[in-house]
Amino acid sequence: MSPLIAIAAVAAIQGQAPPARPPGTERTDLQRHDLSIPGWESLQARVDFAPGASFPMHSHPGEEIIYVLNGTIEYDVEGEGAFTVKAGDVLFVPAGVFHSARNSSEAPASELATYVIEKGKPLVTLKR
Length: 128
Description:
InterPro entries: Cupin_2, RmlC-like_jellyroll, RmlC_Cupin_sf
Low-confidence stretches: 1-17
CATH superfamily: Jelly Rolls
Protein name: Cupin domain-containing protein
Number of helices: 1
Largest sheet: 5 strands, antiparallel
Order of helices and strands: HEEEEEEEEEE
Pfam families: Cupin_2 (PF07883)
Number of strands: 10
CATH topology: Jelly Rolls
Distance between the termini: 31 Å
Radius of gyration: 15 Å
Mean pLDDT: 88
Organism: Sphingomonas daechungensis
Strand content: over 45%
Helix content: under 10%
Domain Cupin type-2: 46-112
Strand order of the largest sheet: 1-2-9-4-7
Shape: globular
């Protein structure tokens, strides 16, 4: 059973639904591996943003390393403010730092996101 299906099944049993992805965003998990550091894993995913789509302020239980594959994406990183990156640019988001992403253009945008995260913790925590 895939990790996402397992999480959804546990949430359904507990009467909680996993947080829905914002419209116009799609994450495709490419690979997930245990690291040599006990209790840690890596997850690599492609994240696609339709024109105008955004992902609200959130954090991760580890670092996120971003490479923009195509388009332009505006990020707002707590403590740094908002800035725009384009295809070929990179970004590092430290563990626990809240950030958001938005495709402010009229063309699709994509990023390759590599997460180095603590195992067993939710990948995304939305800012309340």
